Every structure is written in structure tokens, then in C-alpha cells.
Protein 1
Amino acid sequence: MILVTGGAGFIGANFVLDWLATSDEPVLNFDKLTYAGNPENLEALAGDDRHVFVEGDIGDVEHMGRLLSRFQPRAVVNFAAESHVDRSIHGPEDFIQTNIVGTFRLLEAVRAYWEPLEGAAREGFRFLHVSTDEVYGSLPPDAPAFRESHRYAPNSPYSASKAASDHLVRAYHRTYGLPVLTTNCSNNYGPFQFPEKLIPLMIINALAGDALPVYGDGRQIRDWLYVKDHCTAIRRVLSDGVVGEIYNIGGWNEKANIDIVNIICGLLDELRPREDGESYRSQITFVTDRPGHDRRYAIDARKIERELGWRPAETFETGIRKTVAWYLENTAWVDRVQSGAYRAWIDRNYGERNQ
């Protein structure tokens, strides 16, 4: 069995679904079920004995210790995190508590479980920590992409909290010998993504006839990774990665935010045209940029390709078409996740920005 933390969230749920679609090895899924953790993401696993779901907080050392002792997982894959930059600007303390304190307490529980193990169980155990390219900061337009040796320079409370968690994971390997692996991924997109993030927000707002808010001039560049490609990369790192190593996972898809929005509008014009015949592009609205907005991220994913033989299967063009189609086909899911709390958050984050 493997233990997955944050397995009801966007990336975690996709990982659990893909894992059980390709393996009979059971998953112990541990999630706090905050606003972005949604049991409905795992509905396809209802009645599947290979999937054991437990609600809980990675910061609860005693609870985690009991689960580790009872289920004896051979690996822990840690997705649990607060992950939205805008939310970290409005309320950084949640990010400190979950991403730093929570990771520390999870590491303590895992270390207490791992240290008494013997033989193959001890040698084969792995702790895989899922992180982000945002820990590296912002790149100038013509600078080389982030490599694993790039200096950390986080610029938001979110990325600073993830950087701290990365350092804790490294320290537990160097100090205690805990067999860790760390992955730093680029911007994910795909099914089940909570609609505060750029791509689902644009799809949902477009269909609702609402403004498509684009920060600043929209020329912020990100590398885009289809979530199912990310899942295959994590599986590869877990099975073949070298203990103590860091692996950058990217999609080889650098694109500006405004280009992403235009691509989405073009797909919606094709797949779900507006009744008035106008393009969804007419809904694009440029709003005041967020503080400390990083200008460019780019991942150099040659190490994982060279050493582990992984490369993304999807281009951005194939991945974004699948994503738009998924949101068009799953409007009931979208309606249910857009709670009153979500609408209040959108109003708070975008309502006061000048056009």
C-alpha cells in the first residue's frame, strides 16, 4: 500500500485515479477536505476496496502515526498543500501552517514510523514530496529555464512556504537519512481543477457570460503541464528515482497567460458557441496585476527524461482541448464546487481590481 496525502485535491485525486487504473496496489488516501479537497473527485472509486479514504490533517502527528502503524505503507506521496498564490496574499497564515508546520509534522510522523523498520521494508521505503517551480522565483525573458540546481528565490507567501517545506524534506534526508524524493512541477491543468486557477476560471466565466479577468498585460509566462502527465512522472520518480534527488517536471509548453485565454476562447467558440455569435474573446478584461507577480517560469525537464526516461505525452494543444471538453461535459461538478464561499472569494479577489 502507498499513502497519498491531499488525495482529494486536484493533482492528488488525478494521481489516485491514475494509480488505481494502472495498478492493483491499494491507496490510503488522507485529506483534510478543505475548500479544494473534494470527495466527489473520487466518486469513480466508490466501492473499490483498493481505495481507503481517511479524513485528517497532516499536522496531526498522533493521527498520522496511528495510520502509518496500522496500514504499514511502503511509500508516502505528499500532495497536501495550500497552493493558490492569490489566497496566500490575502491570508498567508494558512500557508505557513499547512505547508511548513504541516510538512514538518508529517515528516516527524513518517520518521518515527520509518526508523524502526528493518530489512527490505526500511530499504524500500520512500517519501515523495510534491513541490512547485515557483520556489525558484521569476526568470528574465531570455534566461535559461529552471534546473534542479537553480537558486531558490520565492516571491509570494505561497512559494516561500513551499520553499521552506522543500528545505525541511532535504534536511530530514541529510540529518536523519529519511529516504526522500522531491519533484518541482510547472503549472498543472486538467480535470477536477478548482475554478480559482486560471484555466478553469476562464472556462467557467466564459460560459457564464462573465468577464475574463487577466492580470496586468497578460504577458506573464508559465510552463504548462497536463495533470495526467504529471501523475505518470511522479510514478516514475517513485519507482526509479534516486533517493535524495530533486526532479523538475515540466510540459515543455511556455505560454503567456493572455495566449492561454485566447486559446480557451477559440476552443469554446468552436465547441460551445455563444448564442449571439460573438467570440468569447469579447469578455476578456485586463485588471490590476497582483502584488509580486512573477513574470516568467520555465522548467528544464531534461534530467527526468535523461535519467528516468519520462517525457510528457500531451502537447498543450491536445491537453487543453481535453480539459475544455471535460469542463463542458461535467457542468454538474462545476456547479457544486462553486459554493457561496467560492463566490465570496472571487468577489474579494477580483471585485476591487480596477479594469
Note: The chain is about 45% helix and 15% strand.
Protein 2
Amino acid sequence: MKVAVLMGGWSAERDVSLTSGRGIAQACRTLGHETIEIDMGRNVAQQLAAAAPDVVFNALHGTPGEDGTVQGLMDLLGLAYTHSGLTTSAIAIDKELTKKVLVPAGVPMPQGRLVVSDSLFEADPLPRPYVLKPVNEGSSVGVAIVTDESNYGHPIRRDVPGPWMEFETLLAEPFIAGKELTVAVLGDEALAVTELKPAQGFYDYDAKYTDGLTVHECPASLPPEIEAACLAHALTAHRVLGCRGTSRSDFRWDPAQGLAGLFLLEVNTQPGMTPLSLVPEQAKHRGISYEQLVQRLIDMALEQRRGGRE
């Protein structure tokens, strides 16, 4: 069939998207599909119409490819596409909206609050240590951990680099000590739990996408009840949000608190497909090759198209 791989764009995650897209395109060619690589421009509607694909493999990360904008465009064009649709994408990209949907469904998430960045220069919004993050960015873009030992000052200084320089509003959450965990869901099955062990600092953008900066332990060595809870919460999040194809849920777990110390941080509806990405790694652990993973996502997109989109 003819597959258009949509990648690139202009978000902060452009380079990662291009890496994901090129790997997907190579897999599609290996599978025998006619494959068109599209680096998304502002004329994306014309680009897609000219390609006239049977299915679009959405390899975009960040806005506007992950927030429902491109999904709505493809719905209007009548195209089959991989991953989640408009409504799910719009909710999941917004961390505050995600909490409002998932916490009532029994998924534990950190309590936090939205803060105007300028207010940080007057006083801390929460007791230190706490985390500041953009409301609608992925891949740990713009995340800052504010501690008593950090060089941000008391309060944070205007002249110190941080997300307060880029975003008018930020989400402040308590810092959860302990382990960084993640779970991929494929179709309607949670695949595995991976522990992410950065060489230093936390699992930020560089640690995610620079070879050698993070060790992936897959499957993670966890108490059975913690592993089971991670898998169950990730699957619940996938279902309640209405995710399609694949998603990845990120967790923090404080072993000192047992099950009460497990919190879901966010749900990624467009997980990376790079050589360092976690969904392909967990799929491989379950005996699914990269090419088989790509084909499954294509098949699910076509099945959803036949059944009618949201």
C-alpha cells in the first residue's frame, strides 16, 4: 500500500521526529510498502493531498502533530492515520486536563497547580523540592527541578535560565524521589515496565535521546505489586483517554512509600520510534520486531478508519 510518513515539523522535538520518521520509512520499505516521507510544512494539507496515501504514519512529536491539530486536519481530509485522534490528543498533551480525566478513574497522579511564571520571582509555589514543567510539551522539554541546592535562588531569579523564560504558565508539582518507570501499551495490552537510570541528573530531553546517557532496564526489577500496578494504570490511562495504536505512560515510584509512592506523570500519545525509544524496546522484549510494530500500527489505523473515527 502507499504509506506517507509524516515527520519533522517545527516543534521543539523536530529532530527526534525526523529520526523516528526515517526509521519508520525504512521499515515500511522493508515491508514492501510504497513509502513517501513528508517533512511537515505549513502547507501540510497540500503535502498530504499530493501524496494521496492509503494511510498516514504520524511520526510527529509535540505541537501541532501531537495536540489534535494535525489529527483534525487528517480527519477533514478523510485520511487514515496512526495513533490517537483529535480529542484524545488534545487532552493528553495537556497535563492538567489529563489529571482531570485520569484521577477520577483511579489513576494516581501528583497534586499540583498552575502558576504564572512571573509569580515564581516572588515566592515558591510549593515547598522545595518541586518540579516545574510546561503544561503542553513532551519529552521533558522545559522541565526544571527546584531544590534547596539548585542555583535558581530563593526565590527563583529572573536572570537564571529556566522554563519561566519561555512559558507564561507552568505546572508546579511536588518532586517524587525514587525510580523513573515507563510502560508502553500496544493495542489493548500493556507490554512491560522499564526502569530508566540516567547517568546523572534526571531523565530529561538529552538523557532520552543521547546514546549512553541512560540505562534502560527492561523488564525492571520491581516488587510484583508495583509492576502489576504500573501495567494496570498504564492500560487504564490508555483506555480512559481513548488512545489508539500505542501510548506510553511515565511514572515515578518512591520505594520508601510502597504502593502509595507510585504516581503516573503523563501519557504520551506519540511515543518515539528512534533507536533509543522505549516502545520499540518493549515490543522487542515481547517478541515483536520493529517492522512488525510498524505494521501493527498501520493495520490498527486502517481498521479504525473502516470503523469510523471519533
Note: The two ends are 24 Å apart (CA to CA).
Protein 3
Amino acid sequence: MKKIAVLGAGSWGTALAMLLDENGHNVTLWSIDPNEVEMLNTKHEQVDKLPGVKVSESIKATTDLEEAVVGKDVIVSAVPSVFVRSTAKSLSKYYKQGQIIIDVAKGIEEDTLMRLSEIIEEEIPGAIVCVLSGPSHAEEVARRIPTTVVIGAKNHTMAKDLQNSFSNSWFRAYTSPDILGIELGGALKNVIALAAGMLDGLKLGDNTKAALITRGTGEIARLGVAMGGKPETFSGLSGMGDLIVTCTSVHSRNHNAGKLIGEGKTYEEAMSEVKMVVEGVYSAKAALALAKKYDVELPIIEGVNEVLFNGKSVKDALHELFLRDVKREHEDLSWH
């Protein structure tokens, strides 16, 4: 049994706290919001984000970060990507060498182009940082629907230990050394999921969405490999797996926001209506900046940026994608 702190009591943080509690660990759930903490401690339910799902009374919620993390073996960072830096900065005052931080959020910092694990390492020098990602909507994990994820760590023994901590009869964790690839897959799929929602907003068909998911996977892999990620990662759980679920699920905030944009709303209006952090909006600019830095062509992600920030209609962006010069599907395959 481990002592585990989960930082962030939204849908994902709460679902993981429930999973870890069920697996026999001692779990403390931290939130910056006193109303959220009171709700969890009195109603034992995340009423706003996971209605109807009971949270075990053995999970204690608190607003006191020191109380949450001191003496813990593992710290799960489940705050939205835009709050990872500020939370890590606060955490640095209480972090003790040897504690494992496992980041489960997905995103790229817009100003610095840093991955979330890099941000935590910058704010907490010497921190041991791992990641968890994959097709894992909180709404389903909280209801014990079978789910698989991948845990990335620099050390194989540590990865195996975390794998055993998270895995049970309905939640299966795999391991990988490719932290960079796992994080990029998780962040960039949100941008593609916005595009998938836009297509649904236009009421287009399955052919169109299948094309988007397939070519979107190619874009993510091209950039990821250029940055040092492994090709296998992008066809795995944190690449293709997460992309499929985020582009097709009713639980996907990025898909739902994209659908509203496809119907004619601005991204600000869409985010307001979804009422949750839409990570893809924040990652879109960063993805385009990384593409320029590494000289990688990402036409879908470029089109999403044009729609979000430059006023281009979804129809025009799609039209331009189809009118680009025709080419081979895989440039490394040739006729002999």
C-alpha cells in the first residue's frame, strides 16, 4: 500500500483517486477550491463533473497542499495543463527527494513550448517525474469501465512499480520509456479532436472523420519523431488510441468544443458552453510553433489554428486541405 496525493479534484483527478483507493492505497485528494473540497467531504460525490458516482469516504479531500503531499510516496498531478506550472511552483516548497510525481494532464505550454513533465522538472529541480496517458475518459474510469493506459518513466523498475499500483481487473497499465512521445501524443490529439468536432458541426460523414484521424495520426507522429519520440508510441495507446477516443466520444470536451465551432461559434463561446478546460485550444498554437521549429509540415493543425485564431471558416479550411498538391501516402515507400 502506498500513500498517494492526487492534486486536482476535477473529473480525472477524482476518478484516479477512486481507482487508487479501490486498489488499496491511502489517498488524499487536493483542490484549490474550498467548495469542491466541502462537496467531496460531505456529499462524497463530484456533483459538477461526475454526477451520480459515489466517492469513497476513505478518500479525504483538502485545500491544504502541505497536508496533501507531505509524507506521500506518490503525487499524482491531475490539474489542467494551464495550471501545471503554478501548482508545481507551490508544490516545490513541500516536495521531498524520492517522492514520485506522475503527471496525468495533457498539453504543451504555449509560451515556452515545454512539455508538462519539463515544466514540473523546471519548477522542482531534482523531481522524479513520470507520466500517464491513453484513451481514458474520466467519466468511464469512475464507473469502472475497462480501460487501458500507458505509464512513461525513465526507470524501468519505477515504471513497473507504478504499473502495479494502478492496475486491477478493469484498469490495465502498460509501461514505456518514451516520455516525450507519450506527452506529445496526449497533447496533440486534443488539437485533432477539435478538428473532428468541427467536422461533426458541419454534419459531414464517417469517411471525412476517418481521413482526419488517420492523417492526424501521421501529423502527430511526424512532429513527435522529429522531436525525438519513438514511432511505435504514436501507433500505441497514447497516440492512435487516445486520438480515436477523443475524436469520437461524447465525453470529449475538445470534440464537443470543436462541434460548437463547426456550428458557427467562436472558440471563446465554445469553451464557455463546454464549461471545462479545452486543452486543444491552448496546445494548437504551441503545436504550430513546434512544427516551425522542427521544420515539419502539419496542414491539419495549421488549419485548426486558422479557424481558431484567424477567423477562417471550417468549410474554407477543409477546402484548402483537399486542394493541396496531391502526394504519396507514405514518402518512404517507393516503386521498384
Note: Strands lie at 3-7, 26-30, 60-62, 74-77, 100-103, 128-133, 147-152, 171-176.
Protein 4
Amino acid sequence: MMNSAVIDKLLLLFFHELQNYFTLAGRTFARIFRRPFYYREFATQFDKLGFSSLFICILTGLFSGMVMALQSLIQLKPFAATSYVGGMVAVTMIKELGPVLAALMVAGRVGSAITAELGTMVVTEQVDAMRVEGTDIIKRLVVPRLKAMLLALPLLTIVTDMISIFGGYIMSAGYNVNPIMYISGLPQFMVFQDLVEGVVKPAVFGAIIAITACYVGLNTRGGAAGVGAAAKKAVVLSSVLILICDFFIAKVFVVFRG
């Protein structure tokens, strides 16, 4: 009986948290196009969440592309098919690794920062003060961060993809693959739908990172120790949700492709 009661309590807690999460997401998306728009806050968040993550995304893309090219070259060289390495790197990075790696890097860097910032505002009662003044907390704190992530992460992913393709060529040049041969392999492996998938995924991942970080941050309890625990929780939860959603989005695109 005791085990059953514990399981029931855990299930109730899980579905309660799930309901609150989707409630916050719904209210946030419903307020995106409502005034006031807080342009200055959006610009500040875009700079903090986007430009500040540019270096780590470039570094991730460069070495991911080089590793992909190296592994592909090793597999293709015995078949004298090294000219296809460019297409293999491009289709792998643009469809899968680019969006996922960029999202995981941003979730680790940005998701924890958003959670820590909002969590600190909660434990120091700044959020309560805003509510007393009649400020819409979701409109003031969550919506600008969501907008910034919806714009920043697709752009960061595009940069990551481009740098990874360049990194793949750097590695391919050592195997006597000339630039024309490398570039000509790109359209042989890719279709327009792959490019669409490569942009839709980071947009969804950006929404996941922003909503998850804001939800965990606004529900922080326990002072300074609680802020640290909330930041860790937000990163882990965002990363898991990104990987789960990546599978389902890929499945949807496979179905549409037929």
C-alpha cells in the first residue's frame, strides 16, 4: 500500500508540473504579439543569449565538421569515393548534429543563465514586487527571452552548419579533395526539405530552452542553494527534451518525405 501511495503521489506531482509547464508555454505564446513589446529588453536578451554564444557554437561546428569529415574519409577512401565527403558532412550536420549540438551548447550556457537570473529575482522577492506593481510577469520576463531564443538559435545553428562544412573541407584538403569536388557533393546528398528541417528544429529547441529555463527559474525555492539546483535542473531537463523532440521532428519529416 505504501509503495502504491508513493507512486500515486509522484504521478500527481508529475502531471501537476506538466500542466503548469504547458500553461506557462501557452500564456507566453499568447502574449508574443500583444503590447507592450519591451523592445529594449528583447535587444538585451538577444545580445546575451545570441551573440554571447557565438564563439562556443563556432568552436563546436568547426571540430564537429572536422571529425565528421575524418570519419567519412576513412570509410570512403577504400572505395575511391572521397568526393562524396562534402555531401555526407553537410547532410549530417544540417539535418541532425548541427541543430542538436548547437541547442545543447546553448542550453548549457544560456538555459542555466536564464534560470539563475530569474531564480535570483524570485528568492530576492523582485518578482513579487513586480506583481504588486501590476506588471505582467510573463510579458515582462518570459516573452522577451522566448523571442530572443526563437531568433538567436536558428541563426546560431546556421553559423554552426556553415563552420562545420568549412571544417570538413579543412580535413578533406589533407586527403587531396579539391574545393570544387567537395562543394559539388553537397547537392547530391541534400534536398530543400533538409534545409527546412535544419531551421525548424533549432526554432523548436529554442522555444524548449526558453520555456524550460523560465519555468524552472520562476519556480525556484530555497535561497542561493535553490538557485544552483534550479540551474542544474533546467539544463538537464532542456537537454532531455531537446533529444526527445529531435526524434519526433525527424520522424515527422520522414513521414512527409514519404
Note: The chain has a mean pLDDT of 87.
